[in-house]
Amino acid sequence: MDGIDHLADERNKAQFDVDAMKIVWAGSRHAFEVSDRISKLVAADPGFRKDNRPMLGRNELFKNTLRKAAYAWKRIIELHLSEEEAAKLRFYVDEPAYTDLHWGMFVPAIKGQGTEEQQQKWLPLAYKMQIIGCYGQTELGHGSNVQGLETTATFDPQTDEFVIHSPTLTSSKWWPGGLGKVSTHGVIYARLITDGRDHGVHGFIVQLRSLEDHSPLPGITVGDIGMKFGNGAYNTMDNGVLRFDHVRIPRDQMLMRVSQVTREGKYMQSDVPRQLVYGTMVYVRQTIVADASCALSRAVCIATRYSAVRRQFGSQDGGPESQVIDYKTQQNRLFPLLASAYAFRFVGEWLKWLYTDVTQRLQTNDFSTLPEAHACTAGLKSVTTTATADGIEECRKLCGGHGYLCTSGLPELFAVYVPACTYEGDNIVLLLQVARFLMKTVSQLGSGKKPVGTTSYMGQIEHLMQCRSNVQRAEDWLKPSAILEAFESRAARMSVACAQNLTKFTNPEEGFAELSADLVEAAVAHCQLIIVSKFIEKLLQDIPGKGVREQLEALCNIYALFLLHKHQGDFLSTGCITAKQASLANDQLRSLYSQVRPNAIALVDAFNYTDHFLGSILGCYDGNVYPKLYEAAWKDPLNDSVVPEGYHEYIRPLLKQNLRTARL
Ligand SMILES: CCCCCCC/C=C/C(=O)SCCNC(=O)CCNC(=O)[C@H](O)C(C)(C)COP(=O)(O)OP(=O)(O)OC[C@H]1O[C@@H](n2cnc3c(N)ncnc32)[C@H](O)[C@@H]1OP(=O)(O)O
Ligand SMILES: Cc1cc2nc3c(=O)[nH]c(=O)nc-3n(C[C@H](O)[C@H](O)[C@H](O)COP(=O)(O)OP(=O)(O)OC[C@H]3O[C@@H](n4cnc5c(N)ncnc54)[C@H](O)[C@@H]3O)c2cc1C
């Protein structure tokens, strides 16, 4: 526009090396270089334009998504992009599409649950996109309760086939992304029945559409489930409905890594735990945690830049008004979100490591860390997506009225993001899984079995049950040991209190149901401890770059102390800290906000988002917000004509009628 950087003064205030922080954020120099190159490539390509999405009707919107997905694939092939680069390209194209499920769930399901042979047969086809797949688990009647799924896969020994069937309306598959209009195949979850016996839910590769003309195969009824929350947004995705009427598939299309059905129809189980059937969900939950940091950082980048541009009140003698970012209330809402974005980034990195580690162990039949991996992925998915969805909405409010405009980018970001609280496991249902894991851990404390990994803090249960924080001055809250002890003792005491209350029930399941609200809170406390401790561990690493460590320390302290303030009821009622110490934490938070304030713009610049990816006038890099908002308004289709369509039919007759009435 005017070529001036309206945020230059803010950028000049930075007290750290932004380029070094970009590398910390990306994870490595290599990751930064790939991300930087691919994001610029996407931003510069008009084929990936996305600013028109809110204006398009469903059919147009969907066709546009198909075009983009095909174009993205064309570019991936033309440019010989690696798997890593291709994934980045899809990320920066930033449009929910069937490809997310193909690459994100269909391929991982085959990799995780298929035998070597099955992988060799199906993966090359999927990698070349000669088949397109979805993940067909949820049904109209059951989503969370996977064991309640009704679709059946009955083995027919005469033909060596499974017969896939939807026996009831509620057994219709409902929700799978990419299913409605695109997928040719699906990994479909169904109850395996052999010789009249029900062996529970298993995965099957089922062809759904003809590879010649895309029509549904015989016995298959398939379509889209209809418009979802928000214009544009997730409506680029064809979430589908699917019914089977005795559809036959060859026996070797059951995913047979975990269990097998022989030619004779005998059901056999490998040594691997049955829960590996749920393995794809563990994988995806892990990726969702890393994605949370992307979505939150994007919203925070928009809200931070705009808060520095926006001025309200405080003008004296005709001088400039105050930047809204200087209001302490704005900082108290914004900076903890900025800190959370960094915290989720680092816990996401760690979770990726944990997942890789458990996968390697599984390959050598070591299943010992699977329960922890399940609890961590489930719990962190829940806590980070809830905080991110709430955080995006908070960022919208932080941008005042303009945040409500689609051109702010925030309404669409929220609408696309908010189902993350539900998909891949409803967040409450997942926290209850964490609570079960915690109750088991507590119950084993007296047995001599040493808790390991993320529950190792429970090894010092006697200390944690009676310790009192020794914080005396606000600065004492800057000590990682003070923070860790407070978070560990809060989590331990909440879990132990639940475990003690559970003993009052003769039926443990009844007790679990009755105490489930408290159990969820104990699970949240445990997960928040993991996030805080992984941030602190990150700071123990070598962190190059002038001032980078200092900024990260401030953000880590903000994250922890803000949580402590928000959940002070927990910390006080469990006696981990005193009211005076809670108040000192608050004093420290204020001073941390002042420390972050001059660095705020540079801290969001470190995310290295292009204007294309941000998709927000309020968050644009140069901060030249008002001319862009003004210009964009005139591009709205409603402004194509000065007098609106419909004037002659609906406005003019009204006005004329009022004139006649007035004359009477
Ligand atoms: C990149 C992709 C883009 C994202 C796009 C998003 C697309 C969205 C896709 C989807 O949503 S796919 C569908 C996802 N569906 C769910 O997440 C369903 C949630 N429900 C469940 O996961 C499970 O049913 C449950 C809630 C965990 C309960 O399962 P179940 O009743 O079978 O188990 P329990 O009796 O409670 O537990 C038994 C035992 O198993 C352990 N366990 C449970 N899940 C797992 C797991 N995933 N991995 C390992 N272990 C697991 C559980 O802890 C119990 O252990 P023990 O207590 O017996 O030791
Ligand atoms: C955008 C989107 C994309 C999706 N994509 C796919 C896909 O690709 N493939 C696929 O298979 N599925 C997909 N799903 C389905 C998704 O996985 C399920 O919706 C999700 O697992 C939640 O299950 P549910 O809908 O049955 O919720 P319910 O379980 O019906 O939840 C309703 C309410 O009941 C509560 N509740 C349920 N059980 C308990 C309990 N035991 N204790 C306490 N409270 C409980 C929940 O907390 C919630 O408040 C998608 C969903 C969405 C929204």
Features:
binds flavin-adenine dinucleotide; alpha+beta; 53% helix; 664 residues; 3-stranded antiparallel β-sheet; binds ligand LOHRUJSQ; Acyl-CoA_oxidase_C; Butyryl-CoA Dehydrogenase, subunit A, domain 2
Could you characterize what this model shows?
With 664 residues, the protein is an alpha+beta fold. It has a domain at 107-270: Beta Barrel (Butyryl-CoA Dehydrogenase, subunit A, domain 2). The chain has 23 helices and 11 strands. Strands 1, 2, 3, 5, 6 and 9 form a 6-stranded mixed sheet that branches. A 3-stranded antiparallel sheet has the order 4-8-7, with no helix packed on it. α9 packs across α16 (516-539). It starts with 7 loop residues before the first helix and ends with a helix. The mean pLDDT is 96. Ligand LOHRUJSQ binds at residues 100, 104-105, 135, 137-138, 143-147, 177, 275, 278, 281-282, 284, 287, 370-371, 374, 423-425, 429, 433, 436. This is Acyl-coenzyme A oxidase. Belongs to the acyl-CoA oxidase family. Residues 480-656 form the Acyl-CoA oxidase C-terminal domain.
